[in-house]
Amino acid sequence: MEFLPVWPFPVNTLFFFGFLLFCGALGGYVAHRWPWIPSITGFMVVGLFAGPNVLGLISPEALAQSRIVVDVALALILYRLGLSLDIKRFINDRSLVLISLTESALTFVAVYFCLGWFGISGLPAAVIGTIAISSSPAVLIHVAHELGASGPVTTRSMSLVALNNVIAFMAFAAVLPALYGQAEAPLSIMIGAPLYQVLGSAALGAAMGWALHLAARTTKAAHQYQLALVIGAVMMTVGAALVLKLSALFAPLMLGMVVRSLERTNLVADIEFGPSFELFFIVLFVYAGANMHVSEMLHYWPAALAFVFARSAAKWLGVTLTAAACRTPLQQASASGLLLMPMAGLAIGLVNTTVALFPREGLIVGSTVLAAVAILETIGPPIAARALRWSGDRLGETVDSSAARPDGHRIAKGAIDASDVRSPDAPPA
User: Which domain holds residue 64?
Assistant: First the structure.
């Protein structure tokens, strides 16, 4: 009977998106019952058990089909992070750049030499070292807003995470010529491919940022269209990056940076995403949990643990000591260092790039980094929550969907209120 559906039931992207939301929401609710567990942990645990590595409710094919949804979710988060990179702030406060460069260099060196003790040396260790520089914006943003955190530590950490990801992408591109050279690629590819990735992604993000700014200025009298403009610009950036074989992670980050730099009066830089933004967080972290490779964690656990220890120690010490030397209170400096420990989105993207271009090196890089990501994404959210509570920043009451702002907007627990993601020069809300 041809009118009946086939069995097994084919899981399409729409059903899978709904499944991630449904199960993730249940996991977040369970985590919410224990105040010391961030909801992110609940999302990821649900994804881990539902994923192909445990119960198999989510197949690898379904994960592959949903990749575009995850790319958009991560792009929106990176766009918001890019808004925290105000060029004028860095000109006036050069200590941020100094802290980031010092911590990034220390992280690379520590990870590179530590991996050498476990037989991973040369180019694979260098690639892993560049990836180790990156930090997870999604964990920091979600935990900060779940706790209602605002203050110097939260603001500084947002900027440092954004700088981390910019430096990691640049460092990774700098290592690519050596990888191409080892693969005996032509000189044109050896030099041209990294330059195309960096300059092309930056140009795409800048062009889309200028277009978004121009459209926002033209339609500033009609506020109801601004959210659509932002999401549309981010989605076009991701789509264009995929078609042009550019970075779908660096381009949205550049988009946010350009928008922040161009706006003299807030048009779309401080626009509210509202409670709906929580949906993207749920999908992103359930997906991350489903992609945890238990077998790789078990097989590469010595190198992964060494990676986690070396990277965490380097980031914490680098930020703490450099920030303290720049006259930042020690408690604030130490908390900022802890907030840089989670690692996910950009790291996974760079791993995928390495695997696709250089399968031999990619096997070592992917196995080690993904195992480390699984560990860091498990311990990272509780550490981030603890660091924010310890930092001295103001913590607001977590509000649910029934709580309303004075302007009538309702903000859900964990949702991003655009008034909280602003230029670091602006006073806290």
Answer: 13-393+415-420
Structural domain count, the chain: 1
What confidence tens digit (pLDDT) does each residue in 147-159 have? 888 888 888 888 8
Phi, psi of 395 (to 5 degrees): -110, 125
Residue 7 lies in a domain: no
Beta-sheet pairing, 149-150 with 394-395: antiparallel
> What distance in Å separates the CA atoms of residue 230 and residue 239, rounded to the nearest whole number?
14
All residues at 6 or more sequence positions from 200 whose CB lies less than 8 Å from its CB, including other chains: 244, 246
Place of tokens 């039931």: 9
pLDDT tens-digit series, residues 2-20: 666 666 566 666 777 777 7
How many other CB atoms sit within 10 Å of the CB of residue 253? 29
**Global pTM?**
0.75
CATH value at residue 229: 1.20.1530.20
Which among 5, 46, 110 is positioned nearest to 286, based on CA atoms? 46
Average pLDDT over residues 137-165: 83
Tell how far CA 143 is from the center of its chain: 13
**Terminal-to-terminal C-alpha distance of the chain:** 62
For residue 419 the two structure tokens come to 């008034």
The two three-digit tokens of residue 115, written as one number: 């991996």
409: nearest Cα among 233, 232, 273, 258: 273
pLDDT of residue 298: 73
Estimate to the nearest angstrom the gap between the alpha carbon of 253 and the chain centroid: 10
The verdict on residue 402 lying in a domain is no
Nearest residue to 261 via CA among 72, 429, 90, 75: 90
- CB burial class (10 A; 0-12, 13-18, 19+) of residue 86? buried
Structure-token pair, residue 32? 């919410």
172-181 CB contacts, 8 Å cutoff, 24+ apart:
172/127, 172/130, 172/131, 172/350, 172/353, 173/197, 173/198, 174/130, 175/123, 175/126, 175/127, 175/130, 178/123, 178/126, 179/123, 179/127, 179/354, 179/357, 179/358, 179/361
3-state secondary structure of 410: strand
Flag whether pLDDT at 37 surpasses 50. Answer: yes
Percent of the chain clearing pLDDT 90 (strictly above):
14
Nearest to 365 by CA among 355, 377, 375: 355
- Give domain status of residue 398, yes or no: no
**Res 314 pLDDT > 90:** yes
Question: Which among 79, 84, 74, 62 has a CA at the least distance from the CA of 12?
Answer: 62
Check: CB of residue 50 under 8 Å from CB of residue 308. no
Residue type, 240: A
